[in-house]
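Note to self: the last two entries modelled the partners one at a time, which told us nothing about the interface. This time every component goes in together.
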Amino acid sequence: MRAAPTILHLDMDAFFAAVEQAAKPSLRGKPVIVGGLGPRGVVATASYEARRFGVRSAMPMAQARRLAPNAAYLVPRFTVYRSVSLRVMELLGRLSPLVEPLSLDEAFVDLEAGGAAYDGATARSVGERLRRDIREVTGLTGSVGLAGSKMLAKIASEEAKPDGLVVIEPGTERALLAPMGVRTLPGVGPATEEHLRRAGMTTVADLAEAGEDELVRLLGRAHGVSLHAMALGRDDRPVVGERDAKSVSVEDTFDVDLHDRVRVRWEVERLAERCVRRLRAAGRSGRTVVLKVRRYDFSTLTRSETLRGPTDDPVVVREAAARLLDAVDTTGGVRLLGVGVSGLADYTQEDLFAQASAGAAPDGPAGSAGGPGPVAVRGAAVPGGAGGSSVAARVSVPPDAVGAVDGADGADVEGRADGGPAGAPPDGSGRPGPSGPSGGRGPSGGSGRPSGSGPPEGPEAGAGGEGVPGGRHWAAGADVRHAVHGAGWVQGSGVGRVTVRFEEPWSAPGRVRTFRTDDPQLEPSDPLPLVGGGSQPAPSGTEPTCPPEGGGAPGAGGGARP
DNA sequence: TCTGGGGTCCTAGGACCC
DNA sequence: TCTGGGGTCCTAGGACCC
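The predicted structure of the combined assembly is written out below.
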């Protein structure tokens, strides 16, 4: 808690949806909903236009479609969001060396750490300036909160939304917080809210009055203590720079529950390999392998196994995940599978050590054979288990055998990490995750899997061709290029046809054309930069990267909608 | 047409050790 | 010869956040 409002919280407004509107001129001023488009998808972000219909983050897509049937529904394009986020974070970095990113679209900045501001007036002008810069560089709007603590800065930015700035002057916070609902405080979700409500507490003032002991009794030590402090406006958490990740995980929800054990196992092995690719891309290794299973009835369980030492070997992780699966009853069906690795270490030292302690490996001078490639240890699982004898060292796959593809990029492009499960799933049902808007009924489209040798895979997960026989799958919102018509994006697809709108971030709203899904002139493409790459002559003054003719926000009329 | 994906932190019980 | 106490590690689950 400091005496001046010099902790800044930035929150970009409806970030994913706003990026899509900036990239797709025909969507400006219209309801846009970004999220999973499959039968089990949920809303990631809704534009403010869509929120007017009651659409909210985390809402099931099916419900969103009922509320806003005429909105544009788009698959997320994380690579674009990441690149925009990077530019925003760069701007924050100019304000202070102490920047704490919370997600792609949110961060705390300690303005005192860099000497940018020590008083309220200066902080305010820094915040206003930041908002202008963000708009100029990205064409997007962000909301800024300024206060003497993280909690209050965040509450302030929430109040500021959209496209505003709010300062909470130190000294005023208790009065401000008192009438607010308990959900305002960080760490209070639906469960805690209900818990407190049953104890007769609904406002922050109620919590302050209850006293620490009462809250600890109700919610447990850690939660109780911190909640009581927050209710009094006390929050001394410092802004901390980037932290190392503590776990890496991947998971898939299937369009249709999986019943076949063989298929379930195959999916687990795929997930294990994807997880390892991410782990290695981050230059880490981990000691504990976690399997997650969500069953048909949404009950979720996890099983974990801790190895002797950290590994980044796909074979080791895959086999551990498979062992864990053996102990799980999946009768009734599986809705989701996930594989994660925790207990992360930077792999170099630990793995060399683990290799040494594991004794001589059959591979001989493993270290030199595999080059710098880390060595993995397959360890005894259970503490008292007989596992000690199962220790075996392995030289892991050389780095270049692992798709360099992944890079820092979460968008897992399918690619073999090693000789894992074959390219096709043992049975043909229920593809995971992002299924097309067409992907509705039963077995009709469900035969294929994205195979290892798959069709020309787009740079972004959504764009690629999935194993739909006789044609590729085109996800709504994905970037494409046509040999004749140029750059555009998929507006929709179905029954062998794909509809594309040809426009670019800086163009006027474009035209729509329809093609056969297997049209050879049409291919997935890289996303275009929002504002001219690098040399951005941002259209000054006006709305986010407006089309040249100015005022033409496709406005009111129910004009051409997707 | 009920409920994504990637994380973090906390709690609680049992094993194990001193 | 009735069984304390504390610390650490591991596992499982739950709440929460964006």
